[in-house]
TrEMBL record:
SUPFAM superfamilies registered for this protein in UniProt: SufE/NifU
GO molecular function, one term: iron ion binding
Organism whose genome encodes this protein: Zymomonas mobilis
Residues of the NIF system FeS cluster assembly NifU N-terminal domain: 26-97
Record's protein name: NifU-like protein involved in Fe-S cluster formation
Biological process annotations from GO: iron-sulfur cluster assembly
Pfam families: NifU_N (PF01592)
């Protein structure tokens, strides 16, 4: 079972997480934990005036699947918006649950297909997206509150 779950590609991804250093100055921050497995992630983001991510820094403590998900997220996160990320998370959850056969908004996430039958691992896989969404939401709120009345 472990051999099919932790494929060579997943292990390779898990060791190639980009942006794996917290930002000193950020527009928004968030920390999340996956309740079933205890995986943890902290995230800092900077955004532009159109509310797209311009910089990201992460710190993650997770299994290889959570790390692989963070790597896949990091490969294409710059320039993404809150609606895009929410749609990707929705599609990822539906894909992992077997409700759909594709993730059209972020196809590279289908590299995690070996985890579909392992629902206890889904939280770790979704954690990077949930944390970035929370950090991006915090950044948008902070920037909106900072605008002159």
């Amino acid at each position: 079972m472990a051999e099919t779950l932790y494929t060579r590609d997943i292990i390779k991804l898990a060791t190639s997480i980009p942006f794996e250093e917290r930002l000193e100055i950020a527009d928004g921050q968030a920390e999340k934990r996956a309740p079933i497995c205890g995986s943890h992630m902290a995230c800092d983001v900077c955004i532009d005036d159109k509310q797209h991510i311009t910089k990201i820094g992460i710190e993650i403590s997770a299994c290889a699947l959570g790390q692989a998900s963070a790597a896949l997220m990091g490969q294409n996160i710059i320039g993404r918006s809150l609606p895009e990320l929410k749609e990707t998370l929705r599609e990822l959850k539906a894909y992992l649950a077997g409700e759909t056969e594709e993730i059209t908004s972020w196809p590279s996430l289908m590299a995690l297909s070996a985890a579909r039958p392992h629902s206890g691992r889904h939280g770790a896989i979704c954690l990077p997206f949930e944390t970035v969404i929370a950090a991006l939401d915090a950044a948008i709120v902070a920037k909106t509150e900072a605008l002159p009345a």
